[in-house]
From TrEMBL:
One Gene Ontology term of the molecular function aspect: peptidase activity
Spans annotated as Disordered: 216-237
Protein name listed in UniProt: Abasic site processing protein
Superkingdom field: Bacteria
GO BP terms: protein-DNA covalent cross-linking repair; proteolysis
Family according to the record: Belongs to the SOS response-associated peptidase family.
Segments traversing the membrane: none
Ranges of compositional bias, category Low complexity: 220-230
Keyword Protein biosynthesis annotated: no
Organism: Agrococcus jejuensis
Plastid in keyword set: no
The enzyme's E.C. designation: 3.4.-.-
Key words, A-Z: Covalent protein-DNA linkage, DNA damage, DNA-binding, Hydrolase, Lyase, Protease
InterPro entries attached to this UniProt entry: SRAP, SRAP-like
Length: 237
């Protein structure tokens, strides 16, 4: 997520903004990343759209600690409505997760690619969010990203892909008054398939596999002599 926060405020028509993490070219699970949320109003006023920092990896309200969030960075769209971890959030706590792009590794040769919009604007993943209260009383906002079977050109990279929402679906997905069920998920997944062909795939260097690496050089085209992966790198999605 390398975009300036002010660009996200304008793009997603945000009303209020919280404290956001620094821009990053290599967001890893449990890192903080921006999310767009629209909690339901409690006093009859129109809901405010907020840009907040959320821990990547959803921690449901009933969790005993944060550890489970590591396994909940993604939610399978086919089963999200029936999974206890995600079902409550699907009902009223849906989010947009902005991203400048994402990395995917093509198998079997494990070649990394940077996937982004053809106009370089941030894309919006369909996400869910949750608030979790620690035993000490601190509140933690966390999120997850919906995934679906990969289609089109993305199917050549991986069997799964994040669900990318077009602008025409942002309001519906965020609206807590819209019933969050499997029918809604199926509809946005079907629409997301149309976004695939407007994406650009760029082979990049293997440094993206190291969660400690960061900087704009990570999205630069891969050098011709990229070579074999460094055994010390920690590969991730």
């Amino acid at each position: 997520m390398a975009a300036d926060p002010s660009d996200l405020v304008a793009l997603f028509e945000v009303d209020e903004m919280g404290d956001l993490p620094d821009r990053s070219w290599n967001v890893a699970p449990t890192d903080l990343a921006p999310v767009v949320v629209e909690p339901p109003s409690r006093d009859g006023t129109p809901p405010a759209r907020r840009l907040e920092a959320a821990r990547w990896g959803l921690v449901p309200t009933w969790a005993k600690d944060l550890s489970g969030g590591v396994k909940a960075i993604n939610a399978r769209s086919e089963t999200v409505a029936e999974r206890r971890t995600f079902s409550a959030s699907l009902g009223m706590r849906r989010a947009l997760v902005p991203a400048s792009g994402w990395y995917e590794w093509r198998k079997p040769e494990k070649t990394p690619f940077y996937v982004h919009a053809d106009d370089e604007r941030p894309v919006a993943f369909a996400g869910l969010y949750s608030w979790w209260k620690s035993p000490e009383g601190a509140w933690v906002l966390s999120s997850t990203i919906l995934t679906a079977d990969a289609t089109g050109q993305l199917a050549d990279l991986h069997d799964r892909m994040p669900v990318v929402l077009g602008p025409e679906l942002w309001d519906t997905w965020l609206d807590a008054e819209t019933e969050g069920d499997q029918h809604l998920v199926d509809a946005v997944v079907e629409a997301a398939a149309e976004q695939v062909e407007s994406l650009v795939l760029r082979e990049v260097g293997r440094a993206v596999g190291n969660v400690r690496a960061d900087g704009p050089e990570l999205v630069a085209p891969a050098p011709a002599d990229a070579g074999e992966p460094d055994a010390s790198t920690d590969a991730h999605g």
